[in-house]
From TrEMBL:
Sequence ranges assigned to domain PpiC in this UniProt record: 229-335
Catalytic activity from the UniProt record: [protein]-peptidylproline (omega=180) = [protein]-peptidylproline (omega=0)
Enzyme Commission identifier(s): 5.2.1.8
Segments for region (Disordered): 1-27
Gene3D superfamilies: 3.10.50.40, Porin chaperone SurA, peptide-binding domain
Highest taxon above the source species: Bacteria
Organism listed in the record: Romboutsia maritimum
PANTHER family per the UniProt record, alphabetical: FOLDASE PROTEIN PRSA, PEPTIDYLPROLYL ISOMERASE
Protein name stated in the entry: peptidylprolyl isomerase
Residues annotated as transmembrane: 54-73
């Protein structure tokens, strides 16, 4: 029971720490230092979580102090944009079941964020993006809270008071004002903040329980999806198709590079020592190690490289030059192994917990017919 309780607490903390993340767009130009990625990723020889879907939830501390991407430490004092379409106090901006979320409620959430952001100029698009994230946060919290009430989830006065003290400690430090100054500045009361915290704590407790993953569940997943835990080891020789400034070389140079790579491939296939060829010709940082990239799993290398390696038998060299955004690769697979369950258990439980959280939230948003105006 103690172990289950600790896991539940961990799940609640994980729930609290999740934030909306946007994927970075790939740059059309590859910087030279990005070539380190092949080598650095190969060092991560433990199972890594893939396709994590962050739940649209943070604690009040996270919303106010982190500001969903706002940068603190700048000159403060920016006012909330008066032009926002959402801030009419009587306007309903979203519904969760029978519950309504108004523009005034959104405004109360956004004001501290804009203050914390200081006078940093923001476009209308940026303001709209931050508002959308906040609305996602508010609707998801409400849906979780409604479900938690049905399940009769509660928090104690001690839990609430402790969370309030932690919250205010973070807020006063971040906003550089006393508790009373903060409450007065944004027209909050101690009771109103506690009310928000109580709702979030209850939602957090609910999702913590809903996303519990036992050792047995994790082991069942491991046994049914063992290929996910396959690690391969490979060496490669890279002929780069980018210059020192990260820009693509000319088509003529690219043609010459491919011809060179194909010549090296033939030499490797004829029996010349692969490591020696890598030290002589490879333009990757792994050259000094004979091209060795150590062990890595699926999802850790660029797709064309990964596909080629995982199809090879141990000791075999790919029968053709493999092209990636980095250049041309001559690849040799040198070993493979499966990570044992004990090695991956914690990472796997974390992944499965994420999946449960995402599924739970998705189902509740449908159940409560969440609509954003």
């Amino acid at each position: 029971m103690s172990e289950d309780k600790n896991q539940n607490n961990d799940n609640q903390e994980q729930f609290k720490d999740n934030v909306v993340k946007q994927e970075n767009l790939e740059s059309s130009e590859i910087k030279d230092e990005e070539l380190e990625e092949l080598r650095e990723k190969s060092k991560r020889n433990k199972f890594k979580i893939k396709n994590k879907k962050a739940v649209f939830i943070t604690t009040l501390v996270g919303v106010l102090c982190v500001g969903i991407g706002f940068v603190s430490g700048k000159e403060v004092g920016r006012k909330l944009p008066a032009t926002s379409k959402h801030y009419n106090s009587s306007k309903v901006i979203a519904t969760v079941g029978e519950e309504k979320i108004t523009g005034e409620q959104l405004k109360k959430k956004m004001e501290p964020l804009f203050y914390l952001n200081g006078k940093k100029a923001m476009t209308d698009e940026e303001v709209s993006a931050y508002e959308s994230k906040m609305i996602d946060y508010m609707t998801t919290t409400q849906a979780l809270y409604l479900e938690a009430q049905k399940e009769k989830v509660t928090v104690t006065d001690d839990e609430l008071n402790s969370d309030y003290q932690t919250t205010m400690s973070s807020i006063t430090k971040e906003f550089k004002m006393t508790e009373d100054e903060y409450l007065k500045k944004f027209n909050f009361t101690k009771e109103s903040i506690k009310e928000e915290l109580k709702k979030e704590l209850i939602a957090s407790k609910y999702i913590g329980t809903a996303s519990e993953v036992s050792d047995k569940e994790a082991k069942n997943y491991y046994d049914k999806n063992k290929d996910e835990f396959l690690q391969v080891r490979a060496s490669h020789i890279l002929i780069k198709n980018i210059d020192d400034q990260g820009k693509a070389v000319s088509d003529n140079q690219k043609k010459k590079n491919k011809e060179q790579a194909e010549k090296i491939l033939k030499r490797a296939q004829s029996g010349e020592d692969f490591a020696t060829l890598a030290k002589e010709y490879s333009q990757d940082t792994s050259a000094s190690n004979g091209g060795d990239l150590n062990f890595f799993g699926k999802g850790q290398m660029v797709e064309s490289f990964e596909n080629a390696v995982f199809k090879l038998e141990n000791g075999k060299i790919a029968d053709k030059v493999i092209e990636s955004n980095y250049g041309y690769h001559i690849i040799k697979k040198t070993d493979e192994k499966y990570n044992g369950f004990d090695e991956v258990k914690e990472d796997l439980k974390y992944k499965l917990s994420y999946d449960k959280q995402s599924k739970t939230v998705t189902n509740l948003l449908k159940k409560y017919n969440v609509k954003v105006k």
